[in-house]
Amino acid sequence: MSADAVVDEPSxxxxxxxTCGNVQHYERPRCLRCRSRDLAAEPASGRGTIHSFTLVQxxxxxxxxxxxxxxxxxxxxxxxxxxxxxxxxxxxxxCEQTVxxxxxxxxxxxxxxxxxxxxxxxxxxxxxx
Length: 129
Ligand SMILES: [Zn+2]
Known about the structure:
binds zinc ion; CATH 2.40.50; 3-stranded antiparallel beta sheet; mainly beta
């Protein structure tokens, strides 16, 4: 994966339904549960657990250098998001491990949230200095 240094930027946003309380990610025009249009964006914790993951060894996109870990992460707020897990060898990953979002700028300037295990953040931060 080619990306610049990891920067903490806790601005992960979810969408909450004011009618039924459902939380969803990404933004949609209606609630997935009750179809209400009364939705509000709110900051999310950026924390979650690994729901599932796989090691990608052949990237479908030229700007993503394999291998990398592609994962489904269940946010504390409930929705599941697809992202990368960084800073950990895939052999050390397990479902239900806790992870936290960090932000990366990829080639072309796109800024995306990726996740790292909570117990590896200090080590990874030291590696990127
Ligand atoms: Zn709803």
